[in-house]
Amino acid sequence: MKLLIIPSADTTSLNIIIRCMSIAAVAAEGGHSVMVLAPRELADRFRSLPLQLRDYPIPQSIGRVHLELPPIKKYGDYAALIGLNDGDYIDTCLDVEARAISEFRPDVIYSDLNLTASLSARRSGLPLASLCNLAWTPPYLLDDEFEIDLLQVEPFNRALSDLALPPIRDLTDLIFSFSDLKIVPSCPEFEQFPPSIEEIHYCGYLYCEAIEGQTDVTFEPEGKRILVYMGVGDIDPPLLMSVVPAAFDGSEYKVTVVLGDFYKQRSHDTANVSYVPFLPLGKALANTDLALFHGGSGMVMSCLLAGVPGLMFPCGVYEREFHAETMSRVAAGRVLYALSDFTPENLRKNVREILDGDYAANAATFGRYLRSLGGPKAAVETLVNLSQHSRLAQAV
């Protein structure tokens, strides 16, 4: 199989590129040829993997995500915020994808929240598999009062018209309506889709330790260990650097705060709190007693796999609220919704109660179930089947 992977060019989300590179690593290990189209700043850390990397354009509006976020109630809100539906950007992406398809000649395309991949798949006649999650389901399937946001969809509808394809009602149609296969890095207990959405494959999770390389990580040998990762959102570094030391300095807890690539500011370490730009997630969680994070899907699933309970602050982002609540529903974590809840007193209270309870045991139990669904290996198997079925259909 020759597999072309096209992630969304959202440089604020490591989770997207991690999911894609996990599939890429497992596919390459199985002898398949892989090309990944991704912004250089995301792809550079994975250059040791045995695959081809091609640079991919970044939307000009991506910097807006660092500003105060408007309400994010559906995927289209976020896609429009960072400029994924800009007409010129759509044309640029389609050109890059067309060149990659012409040169690499893939058998199948896999997309993770990339909106132009569906157009390129239709234009080239290639089968398309897409990552899907229930939080970003086309909203008109779940909301009787849905109204089309013409400003969001019009640039894509112009591109679809040029390809003689029908218009869309919501940007998520490009994922859910155009995909031959929908890969869900979760489980049916967490995500039950409307009956009209077909060809769904649950793989439990998308994370492969092969992407972590040989990075050495050292952890404090004593004390309870807390991993903090808030991504981009309301709880920014100044707030983290104020509240976290106030909560945990002088305590039994050893806290590592991961700031990510997008935040350059860094405070001085304290007796109990250290700051790093990046940690290999698998190794870090294997040495973590509790994760304090934003509730995003990748961290939820990774924590469950590692048997690590979570204290989550989604801060009004609908997708994060959805996944945080799934972890809470299996009693593997707690969700605090308001930014005003992010106080030293609340952190100490909830961390203590979570660690004293059965949350870790519940996380481990559910993590074993998720692992049984196969992860990226199962996802690659479905991609191989999709490419084979497509070749058979073409032969007939």
What would you note in describing this structure?
With 396 residues, the protein is α/β, with parallel strands linked by helices. It folds into two domains: 2-204 and 374-395, Glycogen Phosphorylase B (Rossmann fold, 3-Layer(aba) Sandwich), CATH 3.40.50.2000; 211-372, Rossmann fold. It has 14 helices and 13 strands. It has helices spanning 14-29, 40-43, 75-82, 87-104, 117-124, 150-162, 173-176, 237-248, 281-285, 297-306, 318-329, 344-356, 359-372, 375-395, and strands spanning 2-7, 33-38, 52-55, 108-112, 128-131, 181-184, 200-202, 224-229, 253-258, 273-276, 290-293, 310-312, 333-335. A seven-stranded parallel sheet has the order 3-2-1-4-5-6-7, with helices on both faces. Strands 10-9-8-11-12-13 form a six-stranded parallel sheet, with helices on both faces. The chain is globular.
CATH class of the largest domain: Alpha Beta
Count all strands and give the number. Answer: 13
Summarize the main sheet. Answer: 7 strands, parallel
Shape: globular
Query: Helicity, in percent?
Result: 25-40%
Low-pLDDT windows of residues: none
Q: What are the secondary-structure elements, in order, as H or E?
A: EHEHEHHEHEHHEEEHEEHEHEHEHHH
Q: Specify the number of helices.
A: 14
Radius of gyration, in Å, reads 21 Å
Structural class: alpha/beta
The quaternary structure here is single chain
Mean pLDDT, all residues: 91
Number of domains: 2
- β-sheet strand percentage: 5-15%
User: Which architecture of the largest domain does the CATH hierarchy give at level 2?
Assistant: 3-Layer(aba) Sandwich
Strand order of the largest sheet: 3-2-1-4-5-6-7
CA distance, first residue to last residue: 19 Å
**CATH homology superfamily name of the largest domain:** Glycogen Phosphorylase B
